[in-house]
């Protein structure tokens, strides 16, 4: 594989937060992606998540289908999702499982869990991971706030993160797909919808970014895996908040001919949050590019376009 994109490595445990914030600012302006280390999620827990994930996806389709995605929780089968309908009609060659917020009883009730008889460790493993990655994500948001010269708790407050709508998503890309005339991608070209995404993979390559979305033909660069590091990227809501100062960069996953697993955490604000251009990111010569929008409405519409329904 060609040399990967050079991205800064942010150490979440570093006491020099000013320097971390300034590296993040540069990364978010240049590319919208960076690596995160010392994030507080132990390798052992991450290993258990991948182990449970592979056990779940190895179950027969009839068993997995009993947990078919409802209200954005549960299982989606191969080709159910199409992140770039303009490029292919077939859908993406991945299956996935969504887990929504745990803290709020009403929200948690919507979650679906595989039977304890079949996978007794699944739920505690995923709950533990969800809580830890959420805590890491909130700390990243405080650095992003500093990077924008805002108070550290700006996003915690404006996004009402006690009532966040973050989603943990397990993904499985099969290794071999059989021949097809159409190019089938693991995840077709897309930008993420929310505030930030924290991604871990099992090390199988495939993730690529396109730094200039309007340039044709698109130039794709590999984002290499670093053991133990998360890949963090900016989502569309953050791009809207910052009036495109911070980029929500288009990315995709190409087939590597090997089975690939990834675990993606989409940190999203409370659905009532009004996402509007930050005062520091606009002026007379740089007016807001997007009208204010309620987070819940924006995300619902993005899911509708991806799945053909907002459910
Ligand atoms: O699996 C990956 O590496 C990336 C997945 C992704 O971009 C997504 O689910 O939004
Ligand atoms: Fe993505």
Automatic annotation (TrEMBL):
<dbReference type="InterPro" id="IPR026992">
    <property type="entry name" value="DIOX_N"/>
</dbReference>
<dbReference type="InterPro" id="IPR005123">
    <property type="entry name" value="Oxoglu/Fe-dep_dioxygenase_dom"/>
</dbReference>
<dbReference type="InterPro" id="IPR027443">
    <property type="entry name" value="IPNS-like_sf"/>
</dbReference>
<dbReference type="GO" id="GO:0009815">
    <property type="term" value="F:1-aminocyclopropane-1-carboxylate oxidase activity"/>
</dbReference>
<keyword id="KW-0560">Oxidoreductase</keyword>
<feature type="domain" description="Fe2OG dioxygenase">
    <location>
        <begin position="163"/>
        <end position="269"/>
    </location>
</feature>
<dbReference type="GO" id="GO:0051213">
    <property type="term" value="F:dioxygenase activity"/>
</dbReference>
<dbReference type="InterPro" id="IPR044861">
    <property type="entry name" value="IPNS-like_FE2OG_OXY"/>
</dbReference>
<dbReference type="Pfam" id="PF14226">
    <property type="entry name" value="DIOX_N"/>
</dbReference>
<keyword id="KW-0479">Metal-binding</keyword>
<dbReference type="Pfam" id="PF03171">
    <property type="entry name" value="2OG-FeII_Oxy"/>
</dbReference>
<dbReference type="GO" id="GO:0046872">
    <property type="term" value="F:metal ion binding"/>
</dbReference>
<comment type="similarity">
    <text>Belongs to the iron/ascorbate-dependent oxidoreductase family.</text>
</comment>
<protein>
    <submittedName>
        <fullName>Putative aminocyclopropanecarboxylate oxidase</fullName>
        <ecNumber>1.14.17.4</ecNumber>
    </submittedName>
</protein>
<keyword id="KW-0408">Iron</keyword>
């Amino acid at each position: 594989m060609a040399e990967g994109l050079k991205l800064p490595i942010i150490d979440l445990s570093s006491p020099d937060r000013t320097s971390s914030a300034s590296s993040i600012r540069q990364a978010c302006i240049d590319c919208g992606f960076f690596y995160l280390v010392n994030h507080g999620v132990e390798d052992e827990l991450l290993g258990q998540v991948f182990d449970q994930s592979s056990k779940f996806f190895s179950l027969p389709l009839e068993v997995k289908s009993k947990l078919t995605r409802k209200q954005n929780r549960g299982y989606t089968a191969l080709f159910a999702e199409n992140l770039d309908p303009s490029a292919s009609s077939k859908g993406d060659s991945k299956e996935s499982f969504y887990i929504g917020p745990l803290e709020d009883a009403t929200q948690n009730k919507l979650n679906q869990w595989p039977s304890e008889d079949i996978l007794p460790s699944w739920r505690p493993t995923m709950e533990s991971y969800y809580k830890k990655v959420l805590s890491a994500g909130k700390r990243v948001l405080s650095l992003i706030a500093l990077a924008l010269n805002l108070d550290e708790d700006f996003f915690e407050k404006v996004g009402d993160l006690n009532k966040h709508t973050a989603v943990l998503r397990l993904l499985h890309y099969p290794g071999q797909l059989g021949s097809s005339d159409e190019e089938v991608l693991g995840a077709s070209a897309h930008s993420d919808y929310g505030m930030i995404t924290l991604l871990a993979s099992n090390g199988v390559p495939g993730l690529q970014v396109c730094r200039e979305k309007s340039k044709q033909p698109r130039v794709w660069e590999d984002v290499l895996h670093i053991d133990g590091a998360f890949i963090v990227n900016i989502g569309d809501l953050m791009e809207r908040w910052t009036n495109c100062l911070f980029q929500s960069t288009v990315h995709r996953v190409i087939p590597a001919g090997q089975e690939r697993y990834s675990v993606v955490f989409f940190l999203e604000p409370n659905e009532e949050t009004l996402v509007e251009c930050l005062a520091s990111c606009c002026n007379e010569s740089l007016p807001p590019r997007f009208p204010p929008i309620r987070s819940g409405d924006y995300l619902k519409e993005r899911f509708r376009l991806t799945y053909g329904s907002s459910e």
